[in-house]
Amino acid sequence: MLLVDNPEYMNCDVLIQEGYDYKAIRAKYEIEPDTLTIIKAIGKGYFSDVHVGMLSMPTQSIAVAVKTSHMKTGAMNAEESEDILRRQRQALKDELSIFAHLQSSSAGGHENVLKLLGAITTVKTSFCILTEYCECGSLDSFLHAKWKNGAFEDELVFDANENEKVWKNQRDSNWADNYQSRRDHGSVTTSDLMWFALQIARAMQFLAAMNVIHRDIAVRNVLLKSDFTLKVADFGLSRKLKENDDNSYYCGQKGTALPIRYIAPESLKSGRFSITSEYWSFGVVVWELFTFAEQQPYSIEFDKYGKSMHFYEFLAKHLSSGHRLSLPEYVPQQIKNLLSRLWLSDPKRRPSFQVCRKIIRQELMESCPNILSNEKASHHASEHSLFHFDDEDVSEEAPKTLDYTQLEFSTSAPPAREIQRTVENDKERRKKVKRRVGYLAVVFIAILTALVFTLLYILFREKEYVTFSTGFTTTAVSPTSENNTFLHSNEEATKLLRESAEQGNAYAQFNLGKIYQEGKGVNQSDEEAVKWYRKSAEQGNGDAQNKLGVMYMLGKGMEEVCRSHLKMLSNGIEKPLTKEMQVCNIILE
Fold first, then answer.
1. Who contacts 469 (Cβ-Cβ below 8 Å, separation ≥6)?
2. What pTM was computed for the model?
3. How far is CA 292 from CA 150, 192, 219, 227, in A?
4. Within 10 A of 500 (CB to CB), how many other CB atoms are there?
């Protein structure tokens, strides 16, 4: 891994290649940009995005979390864009400084603090920080899912006399032995929540020992490994205090966005942050654990009492009046007492992280002691943990400060293989989806083409042909043809045509008029011919209109002047003139 204590990859005297936009902020953590492959986004913060990526190393590739800025500068002018990039670079420099300081101890960090793996600070538009990858994501998402699925199991139950609550471990001798089985089945117990609180207290004590205040500790900024190991992360607001000064504090800059729901009352008023104000924030985090982060701190109280006020004004008034966050019934009494002390108005009276650890550990020894003993052993054997830590909590007398010489470093990172398999599976799934979509598209186009041709054929048939289907077989006849031939006798054809004509069929009326005009199968009758031609012509049949006009002009069927002939000719459809029409026009002229 790209760390100073890993000689295979790190060199404090590493030279940054020429041609980069900047010199490296911290050369010993700088990596080559082409060794990093970003796979997909896994989280979004207020100032940055987090992606999962693969870091290529000489012997293997490992999964990493990549934190990048999500501020876009494309729509800005050159001066504004340069200012944004400058501030981004400074923020990255501040966070890198905190990471480097936390990993400056002989052990290289702490088991419950996120591990820095490297950074890219030499490319102008690709600033990023690389940290270890936690496969289970943020703790708040994990808690939300468990609460939504009803996976919480309260280990506090009433005793046999229904007088007071006791731990299930006190009623069931096998309860403690089966804690891992409960986890495997997706359950989260009261002991698991206390185990989370204990790990966060460990991390916070480590930060305090390194004179670092986090200023943004919350379950959303805590990451979870598959073995229930927690990693405190997101040091964007963290600052280093002066060393060897118990009264040291950091004064926040004006305009800095801060999570006021987690901030101690004295910090709200003065803008000063210290280790004792971190104690208060830790209490809010424990409250989040036991409420499964379902609500933001003080949101219920604000909705009930402070809607007419600005939230900052409400919170300051609410806390100064002595009000505190309400706790669920299933919170153990010792944890309730601890939170009451963490939320004391006097910072000096709040219990230290060392005291918090001791109280939580004692409660865990009552509820599920196997978690403490087995987790210690599993951390030494786990391949999923980058650090192995001898838990001094097992000792009754905890030292004032942590003994970091007991930390060990391991470069194994099995999540990389899992990420590679996931990427390959995603690619294969995408290929299958594309193939299926292609098949469906071909079938759809074929069906659509067949429907279009069928529709065109039907429309063509209706427009060009008339087929009589009233019980006898005929050939299809064109209404403009002068040589209509029927397969059956003229009398039968005339009968069927009359039935159809009387029902209003314009083509049948036209053909019936033609039969009367020519005297085929019936007595020749110009009057009948004119009658049926008129009915067909009135329905817009152009051929009937032409025929009727010719008969009017010749004086057949009725006494009519040429004016009627001209009127019928003007209503005819625009067609090439027939021989009869040409004769009529010559006569009229």
1. none
2. 0.62
3. 11, 12, 9, 19
4. 19
Neighbouring-strand partners of residue 165: 158
CATH number, domain with residue 519: 1.25.40.10
Are the C-beta atoms of 551 and 533 separated by less than 8 Å? yes
Q: How far apart are CA 344 and CA 327, in angstroms?
A: 16
Q: How many residues does the chain have?
A: 589
Contacts of 49 (CB under 8 A, 6+ apart): 41, 43, 67, 68, 69, 70
Within a 13 Å sphere around the CA of 253, how many CA atoms are in the beta-carbon half? 6
Quote the CA–CA distance of 262 and 298 in Å, as a whole number.
10
User: Are 292 and 382 found together in one domain?
Assistant: yes
User: Residue holding tokens 């009326």?
Assistant: 509
Q: Which two tokens stand for residue 512?
A: 């019936």
Residue 149 φ then ψ, to 5°: -90, 5
- Asked if pLDDT for residue 583 goes beyond 80, the answer is no
Task: Provide the token pair at 148.
Answer: 């939504």
151: DSSP letter: -
- pLDDT attached to residue 589: 52
**Residue 471 maps to a domain:** no
Summarised one tens digit per residue, pLDDT across range 139-151 is 999 999 999 999 9
| pLDDT value, residue 359 | 97
Distance CA 474, CA 511 (A): 14
Between CA 506 and CA 512 the distance in angstroms is 10
Q: Is 118 left (phi over 0), alpha (psi -120 to 50) or beta?
A: left
- CA-based radius of gyration for the chain: 45
Handedness of CA 182, 187, 190, 191 (dihedral sign): positive
CA distance 548 to 529: 9
CB 471 within 8 A of CB 488: no
Contact 112, 45 (CB under 8 A): no
Query: DSSP labels for 70-116?
Result: ----TTS-HHHHHHHHHHHHHHHHHHHHHHHHHT-STT-S-TTBPPE
Judge whether 493 and 521 are in contact, CB under 8 Å: yes
> The CATH number of the domain where 210 resides is what?
1.10.510.10
376 labeled part of a ligand binding site: no
Structure tokens at 223: 């990451």
- CA–CA distance, 170 with 174 (Å, rounded to integer): 10
Domain boundary among 363, 385, 413: 413
Look at residue 323 and tell me whether its pLDDT is greater than 60: yes
3-class SS string, 184-248: HCCCEEHHHHHHHHHHHHHHHHHHHHCCEECCCCCHHHEEECCCCCEEECCCCCCEECCCCCCCC
